[in-house]
């Protein structure tokens, strides 16, 4: 059972920090007051069939909140990953909830209902206990994002504190717009994995300033890998979402800017120790 207790919207808004909210509360504050309806919620008992077999305590929503409602009176689905459960990892059930909701939103649009989507990324990526099932689920999420973003903006938000890693960092990159705070981190591989494979001299997973200088929200925006840097504040994040919706669908999504990114990556000197400034310069030159 999910341990986060739902709070009245007025109390959530008074608590200015978005990061301090649980996934369900984050979804609630983004939607218009009184419009949130949770689909496949905790009382539906959709738990992972694989965790219990491995002696892992399950959660009755599998760590994924699917909230339907409106934003500025437009239909929206908010998909919030609970970073406090299994590090926000995605398995078969949680992944199916996200991809299924996105697929239904795309179908809404084909039926004349302009349904948009917001994905709240607090995830380490695939759930290791579910291995290939989790990978398949994340691949379906990728496909569903690309389908839906043809009709409506798909907005990704990574606030903190878990970050966004693994296959779900690819999902974040596929979003129409990606919003981050300074506390956010986004990367294909997590710090511990990089240290394990490349050695502590290359990447010290305990050096927090070093890690944030490469994968933190501010660096990702400066490098063009995220769109908006926003303070950890509920009102500011809601306002940012409204501003992005007003922009509409991007003329060219980030994942379609192949030449731009290849131009930058071709300038990488693998013989030199990378620095945050070097990484920013490479991406910025690629965009020139």
UniProtKB/TrEMBL annotation:
Q: Does the keyword Transferase apply?
A: yes
Q: Write down a Pfam family by its short name.
A: Carboxyl_trans
Gene3D superfamilies, alphabetically? 2-enoyl-CoA Hydratase, Chain A, domain 1 (3.90.226.10)
Task: Name a single GO biological process.
Answer: fatty acid biosynthetic process
Q: SUPFAM superfamilies per the record?
A: ClpP/crotonase
Alphabetically sorted, this entry's keywords are: Transferase
Keyword Transferase attributed: yes
Start and end residues of each CoA carboxyltransferase N-terminal domain: 1-199
Record protein name field: Biotin-independent malonate decarboxylase subunit beta
Under the heading InterPro entries, the entry gives:
AcCoA_carboxyl_beta, ClpP/crotonase-like_dom_sf, COA_CT_N, Malonate_beta
Task: Please give the Gene Ontology molecular function terms for this protein.
Answer: acetyl-CoA carboxylase activity; carboxy-lyase activity; transferase activity
